[in-house]
Amino acid sequence: MRNPQSNRAKLPPLATLPAFSIAARTGSLTLAARELHLTPGAISRQIKSLEDALGVQLFHRGHNAISLTDAGRQYLIHVNAALATLENGTRALLPDRVRLVIQAPITLARRWLIPRLGAYLQENPSVDLNIQSLALGAGDVPDVTVSYKRGSDEARFASAFLLDRTVAVCSPLLIGSMAKTVTPDALLDLPILLDTADAWSWRRWCAAADIPFQPRSGSITFDTDEASIDACMTGLGIGQASPSLIERELREGQLIQLCPAINPIVGAYEIAGPAPTDRAAGFDQWLQTWRTEAATRS
């Protein structure tokens, strides 16, 4: 009689699946390592072990960047579904679940906070998060409100968890090989993208470059930095953005940084007001660990 188990695929090392899922979500071995409290080398070895067990390549590997192969994208769907089932089952068994409502600017929420929430949930498995965009108005009374304050003096932002340094960026299609040699003044010969009507970031950038802010080829103004970043990626002009909010685009080459030595502080993100609950205070403390890590890297 034929053994019915003989046609069953051998399961890969299951302990490697979280590393694969998180690396795929963040596009970074370093961020995956931070979430799992491991080293990037350990994450790399886990993914290699998974690839060897499956007999397929899951990631393309480049200089300081990884991206999913076609096989990796297909496998990720099943891995995420399996991990979500296990996570939901585990959370259902946990007593005393709490809800944490967080309001934050939409660009910060989409581009900075969401890619890091996995680390918070791993450390706080009994918390149900409700993320609300300030741009869409308040739906619930927030436990935590993230606010943005303008300013160029770092000393003003002692309680901030993320400093907003602005850099000039563009699509590689816009100026191509000129990117490494273009001067700050020459950038103003190209269309300029503004994320505020008063051109605050551009004026601070030009001041740091010791040139007047005088766009000579016109400008396009948007009411959010999210829209300005999208326009920049399409090649409409030269934009301004915080490297912390365009990590993936810079890593994957969708945007390139121009005149990298010029990166003035234009503001900061911080928690507005005192934390009303212990869990809100805990979230604030978790946010501060990212500032500490950024300071250590620099």
UniProtKB/TrEMBL annotation:
GO terms for molecular function: DNA binding; DNA-binding transcription factor activity. Keywords: DNA-binding, Transcription, Transcription regulation. Pfam families: HTH_1, LysR_substrate. SUPFAM superfamilies: Periplasmic binding protein-like II (SSF53850), Winged helix' DNA-binding domain (SSF46785). It comes from the Bacteria. Residues 12-69 form the HTH lysR-type domain. Belongs to the LysR transcriptional regulatory family. PANTHER family: HTH-TYPE TRANSCRIPTIONAL ACTIVATOR TTDR-RELATED, HTH-TYPE TRANSCRIPTIONAL REGULATOR. This is LysR family glycine cleavage system transcriptional activator. It comes from Shinella granuli.
